[in-house]
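Can't attach files on this board, so I'm pasting raw text. These are the components:
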Amino acid sequence: MYQSPTISYHGHHSPMGAHSSFTLGRLGASCGMATEKGAAADSSVYIGYRSASGVMHSFPFYKEMENEAERFTQSDEDVVATNHIFAEDEIERTYGWATDQFEAPGIRFSIYTPFESIPDPASATQEELAFASCPGTVIELCVENDSDEEWELFFAHHGTTPWMPMEGRHGLKGASTQGRMGFASVDPDVEEFIDFSVDKALGRTHTNTTFLLAPVAGLSARVAPGTTRVVRIAVGYYLGGTVTFNYPTAYWYNRYFNELDEVLSYTLKQAERSISIAKQRDAELASSGLNADQQFLLAHATRSYYGSTQWLDNGDPVWVVNEGEYLMINTLDLTVDMLFFELRYNPWTVRNVLEHFVERYAYYDEIFSPDAPDQMREGGLSFTHDMGVGNTFSPEKYSCYECGGIDRECFSYMTCEQLTNWVLCAGVYWVETQDDAFIATHKDILLACLQSLLNRDHPDAAQRNGLMGFDSSRTDGGGEITTYDSLDHSLGQARNNIYLAGKCWASYLALDHMLTSLSEPDAAAEALAGARRCVDSLTAAFDPTLGYLPAVLEEGNESAIIPAVEALIYPYKMGLMEAVSSTGPYGAYIEMLKKHLAYVLRPGVCLYDDGAWKLSNSADNSWASKICLNQFVVRHILQVDYEGSEKADPAHVRWQVYGSADHACSDQFSAGIPIGSLYYPRIVTAILWLEEQPVGQHQAEGRHEASEEVKMV
Amino acid sequence: MYQSPTISYHGHHSPMGAHSSFTLGRLGASCGMATEKGAAADSSVYIGYRSASGVMHSFPFYKEMENEAERFTQSDEDVVATNHIFAEDEIERTYGWATDQFEAPGIRFSIYTPFESIPDPASATQEELAFASCPGTVIELCVENDSDEEWELFFAHHGTTPWMPMEGRHGLKGASTQGRMGFASVDPDVEEFIDFSVDKALGRTHTNTTFLLAPVAGLSARVAPGTTRVVRIAVGYYLGGTVTFNYPTAYWYNRYFNELDEVLSYTLKQAERSISIAKQRDAELASSGLNADQQFLLAHATRSYYGSTQWLDNGDPVWVVNEGEYLMINTLDLTVDMLFFELRYNPWTVRNVLEHFVERYAYYDEIFSPDAPDQMREGGLSFTHDMGVGNTFSPEKYSCYECGGIDRECFSYMTCEQLTNWVLCAGVYWVETQDDAFIATHKDILLACLQSLLNRDHPDAAQRNGLMGFDSSRTDGGGEITTYDSLDHSLGQARNNIYLAGKCWASYLALDHMLTSLSEPDAAAEALAGARRCVDSLTAAFDPTLGYLPAVLEEGNESAIIPAVEALIYPYKMGLMEAVSSTGPYGAYIEMLKKHLAYVLRPGVCLYDDGAWKLSNSADNSWASKICLNQFVVRHILQVDYEGSEKADPAHVRWQVYGSADHACSDQFSAGIPIGSLYYPRIVTAILWLEEQPVGQHQAEGRHEASEEVKMV
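---
Top answer:
Structure tokens for the assembled complex are below.
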């Protein structure tokens, strides 16, 4: 079986849409349950067993493990009992797509995070919706006592707000804090406790279970010599009432559950079903054909994605993905990357986000050329970078992020890129779902997007070259940036950027495709002409002296970037296979990109020495999510390989398990060290890799089957 | 004017009953607004002005001041501007009873925390209740620009959750976070901003005010050369809906205010009235006759008290004082100490808490003698230590604190002491208010209290000696403790403790007084007999060889404690002047206590070398609140002085301003270092000192006048 280089790294363990996680796995680190937090909980989890003679055996799921170990492991000869904290080499961790399992001598601990299609509230049954939205997670603790004395297994959690014991309500034993999170079991042999430590609790140093002042609540059960006991526990979350600001919404699960106790009770009742789905997902990934490193990365990304999801309710469903540690709401340049994952499982969430942007976060601007910043021209429609931050929705038509007065640096506007992002999401969504009503409803928006895209090239049609040439008036004389906001101009500047130009080309193709279907032949033709201008400019810009296409087609920029090819994903996913073929209408462009790749995918250019990918040769700042996406384009769409390509996946695994060990899955790395975008949802671009496998497998495991499971189970 | 030894210490600045504080004052420390937190906010406040040439002048109300200072103060010769952070010796702080003012060159910053009688909801008008409960605080910033360039004053606050600008709603400029706290001004010349720092904001490095991602929100206003500008700002808090668990309540202010914006708007509208009340309080304290150290201690205690108060609503008012850093709800052994303060301003809160204990936190137990722990006898009624913790109400009849199975150590039961506490509160409340209906309603409770108190001495009447001799069955074979829970047995053990015996004596007197009034002559006589037994035992236990009354009358204990005299406060406050007189019925006891004091109030016994009080000679653990109370008993009731007594007050000030500088007013000190009970409300026992002043003054400043002010203003 595959072993990642270390087992000591955090993973999210989250229900779908609850923006909550039982994050755990990094040894000797803070961990535990947390809700609406852009980082691992600052708590401790105690899992293990205590022998009748008082020796504690436990996993090191808490901070200052080493100090604690010293404190427990007494060399004093008078003390017979020495407590034992499992060392890393005693623990085996199996990290499946939906099961995370830790085994140490005598004990096995499993966390099940099943996921499947989130059913569309417009058509699903109450029961389906309750199951999908239930904010609980099943864990299982198995202790096999091969000794000749009684053991007592335990699961306990440190809290920073008071624990309240369950005291048998709904048949539950366990504890909750402020009704917001808690854990419980319905096992009749389990006892609940609250104390200053597990050791004190199991030592029965006091006699009541209502010791609300003490910070450690837990469950224990006796395991007779020579027997095995399995205890099933639910961890759960509950936030009732309005949870967002400036645009009131509640959690969707409020519809089915009135309080945490009901969540925990339901989670335990549905445990078999949850475990079964988790095991199905594990099996799918194991038999996917992905190599072991890829399997790890996809599983890791999937967990971080669900940890950031937030299924809200304002009368209608409101789908939100929070931007990892930053907690920005539905960042549109993340939406376009997570699109492939969401379309596989629940396309309705994509439409939900796109329409939310249309309703509240679309705006019209003017534009200007950097040569004449005071001369405003007609701009057009675009969309904000995000919808707010930390449950606080921004005022309509504004993101929480974009500021005027900034010239091509972090926090400037992303007007052009967000325009392409909305168009590309719409196009891929429509093709995947055949939701003709969607494009029909938004025909005027699509036409406005086309005009806006054309204007941002040049308001004077005769002077257009297909690239973005004008900046938004919203920048107040500054200059726009791309999603690569903290990179240098090679990927950070929007204007005349070849990465963004690729997205413009793909957007024109998407608009052509949709407008043709909408019987708007003139507009479709205009879109197609835009696409042509774009690739022609790009193809012509290939610099044979340099050997590649420079990143920004102005001011002598000579950066070499991998994402020159990124946008091929969109026509590919829209089924426009001719568009990405060397023999199709854009064949020269495709061939040029292959030449470009042949140059850049070399050590010292866009490869680190260890084989990891460096998105730009001029900046030590690389995004894991974008690497996954570009890998798919390179390997699968362009069928390009290069010397040493087998070194990339293991290197990217090391970024996560060593570099980002405290932050679960992270996105932005500088030479393997995460420098931002921690605890991040975006890396589910790795879902694309499943399509690289032999034909048939993808279909068999795709969303259609996932939907069927809901009915089946 | 009086100067405390340092100006660098935190003070609470809180509205009444909102459990919220704008805590600030310690230089270079975290500070700011926080709600329901048992510590100073982990934030930063920026107050100062920026010259047109870009030099920032600011108070160091943020952490890592020194590093920041280094960063700002550039020695690079190319940089002309050097920013200036006011040093401690440039700042003058005036710490009145209700005004805390900081002055530095060119700037004055004042925080007004008016307090007065909280009107009884049973009889007060909506307008009175709204004003008293409004969770807002007025601050004033005055900048006097004597330079020849324009200055820009600023007030800004760092946030850990997103700021949302006011954008003129209700005419307000400012910002709020998650609708829970914020600040605003209605000054038309003020601008609002959100940015990464004040410097960036005033440098206008970006152009929009909706930059929700940035952590620093603030207000600024221009000050022309040669002019002075005063800006009035409200800081406020708002928690809507149910805020407590296991016993749902909302904040009382929800009745008058629907959201934070309304709180801020109202606070600004009522600013003159608030400032006027604050200035009245300042003037009262200044003319109180208390020495400067005492004035400081009372002002400091008052702020910490209000910071812990929580005026809740479950249809009827629910009064809660949180136990400082521990957040325990209505700890009864604090209630009995804060009684004098609450009776001065709002006696209805005392009755409210006492009746809440009767309804939900009274219980009956059995009792046992330590000689025969398995032989249970009839115990009786008592009350729990507290009602829960951290907004989580304990299950009925249980505190969050008390555990069985513990023998005279922290977290054991305080059954006997809490019984006396309830009785003493009831007695003093009744005498002060002449609320005959209260004792009539609770006559059965009073009778049950008497029986319980008698039984805890000895269930067999013939064997009673007036002292507690039996422990509660709730201890499960352990032993009870007193409120001095972390002290050694001299004050920590309840059984046969002379401190608790004093409270038993006072409780018998209170019961006699109330039951006489209730025409229960037999029960009253039994109570009086109990009081007699108690003082006779205590008087006889004086050890002439030792020279004092040892703390615990068993097992050869020889500790010497000051609180032997503590309980005299209760008969004194009940007007039973004969009971505390050397010539009265307990004259021998009173004389014995004076001899005791003559022995213990000496360096090396119960005085530290610097003159501070040490409650027990056998433990380096002293409670500031209890010192204040015992000082009053010693100085005013017993009229005892001792050599070096003038050194005590300055020493106790040093405990607070040096030892507890980060924690506002704290209670539990070990040689001047706070070791627990930080950020604590209980020190308002210092209110008693006002009664030591010339006759007439106390009456003039008491609650009657305070009540009149409500009508007057």
